[in-house]
Design goal:
- By secondary structure, the chain is an alpha+beta fold.
- The protein has one domain.
- Helices cover about 25% and strands about 25% of the residues.
- The protein has two helices and four strands; from the N terminus they run H-E-E-H-E-E.
- It has helices spanning about 5-10, 30-35, and strands spanning about 20, 25, 45-50, 50-55.
- Strands 1-2 form a two-stranded antiparallel ribbon.
- Strand 3 (about 45-50) and strand 4 form a beta hairpin.
- The radius of gyration is 13 Å and the shape is globular.
- About 0% of the residues are buried.
- Keywords: ATP-binding, Nucleotide-binding.
- InterPro entries: Kinase-like_dom_sf (IPR011009).
């Protein structure tokens, strides 16, 4: 799930990059860009009504 950092600063008063919320993780755009190698087509899993879905690997290896 991606939400701009401003959302978390305004609504939750937090600024760290990945936050647990309702058993999902929230990442910054930069983290997602790094994990997907700049949204490389080789990491594209599919397309749907809400946009494209990419696989990615975080710095932690997850």
């Amino acid at each position: 799930i991606y939400k701009p950092l401003e959302y978390w600063q305004l609504n939750h008063g937090v600024t760290s990059t990945a936050k647990k919320r309702h058993s999902g993780s929230v990442f910054t755009f930069k983290e997602m860009e790094e994990a997907t190698l700049s949204f490389n087509d080789e990491n594209l899993l599919g397309k749907g009504g809400f946009g494209r879905v990419y696989k990615g690997i975080l710095r932690s290896g997850q």
